[in-house]
Fold this protein.
Amino acid sequence: MTKKIGDQAGKMFEYFGSFLRKCIFSVLSVGPVPDHIAFIMDGNRRYAKKRNLLDGAGHRSGYLALMNMLKYCYELGVKYATIYAFSIDNFRRRPEEVQSTMQLILEKIEDLIKEESMVNQYGVRIYFLGSLKLLSKPVRLAAERAMVATSGNSKSVLSICLAYTSSDEILHAVQECCGEKWDEGSALESKGAGNGLVFLKGNENGKIKPSIVVKDLEKHMYAAVAPDPDIIIRTSGETRLSNFLLWQSANCLLYAPPILWPEIGLWHLVWAVLDFQRNFSYLKEKTKLS
């Protein structure tokens, strides 16, 4: 009997929370809603230490916070969400900590592609961005399965930056561009139409201009699957990007609430969106100028 009453109370609380969010989001939707929000999930380990939790408990609490935050984003109408899940630099941590984190990531990837998962409920397509070859085979294969399993979803997009740094992303894009131009030059050379070098070319005025332009690089970025972020939210009060989306964040809003990632909640998202709306005209003008 007690369990039944508890279940009913839980459902009522969930219903009330859902109704309250709808009211809040309907008010926010009067103003411009960000198309893309990115998250730097900082503070999981400090949260565990602060609460005297076992190793890994902070990351598990952080995962629950992430699921709530993504749900809020998709309910609000944010189409793209990007999370900084694991930096290449994180591989330098203690081997046992890296192994534990990788095991948790593997477990949660499997959870994401279950039929009843939030990803399928909201029609979310998943992309994994980064140097995936650095991952262990089980994690890499799980990531590939998740991308294939959600490829038919089209309502929203979740980009998970795994084995990622922005400097590696930019280097990758430059290498891809150079390889592409080299192949073009080789093809011309084989037809007797050039000397294999197409890094410089003439325009309609006969002047020389670079063959590789900004759009070429952007096309080869890992994050080309989504538009540039409108807001980057980093918890723990830090105002650093930590090598995350450096190329894409030139004209976005940085919101840094002084809480640890597992402590993030609905109101932090609301304040970030309100701040975005307050600065919308300025950010839009900056984007036009760039």
